[in-house]
Specification:
The chain is an alpha/beta fold. It is built from 12 helices and 8 strands. It has one domain. Helix 2 crosses helix 3 and helix 2 packs across helix 12. It is globular.
Length: 272
């Protein structure tokens, strides 16, 4: 696999690969960390969609969700099918930017840089448990806060209380664990309204790093078989997602490649 100079991202944002109309960023984890560093340093307001086949297929059913992905600072390829499609498009350096791995890598480098982390989402007690475990794993990690919001629409007063709660904590990064597509909609709604440089949606990473769910073995992750492991672990919840989405994803790709269906990206989305 070829590699490139990560410093080039300072002047040349990553290209995007058109996957059924979703612009997937052609990046590595090192690229993602470089961009997150830049956004924090400059006080930008960006969000990162960590997306696999599920997010792409949800975007086929919901054009607003597709637009949310395409407005993101990054759409990280969290799934080997998106990596393989990036390779086929000529971006041989691309690697899987797996949400749980991105969280760990970001926590690791942020210890020396002093970044403050906020964990938003998950069931009651989960973000606090996650924060505690990461704090034990990375000595000196700065935890700005953790909160599990109600599983319902917030009232106007509750929404303002949420914004104030996060603003007072002064995080550099808010990790959002609400699952797709809820977390993408949440980030798009609050980016800019929250005084936070970076929002990152990582879904199941909360349960994995809180020690509540097992991750697939590395060989399954690298071979594109993680879905099978997760299906076996949670067949009732994930069965419809994988058994319907995966074949439908392949079929839609074949239609795109044949030219029978067009999924155009805005020209501005092809770069950065």
């Amino acid at each position: 696999m070829t590699h490139r100079d990560v410093s080039a991202l300072e002047s040349d944002p990553p290209q995007r690969v058109n996957v059924l109309g979703v612009g997937v960023s052609a990046i590595t984890i090192a690229d993602a960390l470089t961009l997150i560093d830049r956004w924090i340093a400059t006080g930008s307001n960006r969000y990162v969609c960590v997306t696999g086949v599920h997010g792409v297929m949800e975007s086929q059913r919901d054009s607003a969700l597709r637009d949310i992905h395409n407005r993101a600072g990054l759409v990280a390829p969290d799934g080997m099918p998106l990596v393989w499609l990036s390779w086929l498009s000529g971006h041989r350096y691309v690697e899987r930017v797996y949400g749980p791995d991105l969280m760990l890598a970001c926590c690791r480098v942020s210890v020396s840089r002093g970044y403050r982390h906020y964990f938003f989402g998950g069931a009651e007690g989960v973000p606090e448990r996650l924060a505690a475990r990461l704090g034990e794993r990375f000595a000196g990690l700065k935890i700005a806060g953790a909160w599990s919001p109600p599983f319902r629409e917030l009232s106007a007063a509750e929404e303002q209380e949420m914004i104030d709660r996060i603003a007072v904590a002064r995080p550099d990064i808010v990790w959002v664990g609400l699952s797709t597509p809820k977390q993408e909609r949440w980030m798009a709604r609050y980016v800019g309204r929250l005084p936070v440089p970076v929002l990152i949606g990582v879904g199941a990473a909360f349960d994995f790093h809180a020690g509540l769910k097992r991750q697939a073995p590395r060989w399954m992750q690298r071979s594109g078989l993680e879905w099978l492991f997760r299906l076996a672990s949670e067949p009732r919840r994930l069965g419809p997602r994988y058994l319907i989405n995966n074949p439908w994803f392949v079929w839609r790709l074949l239609l795109q490649w044949s030219g029978m269906v067009r999924h155009d990206l805005d020209p501005d989305m092809r770069k950065g």
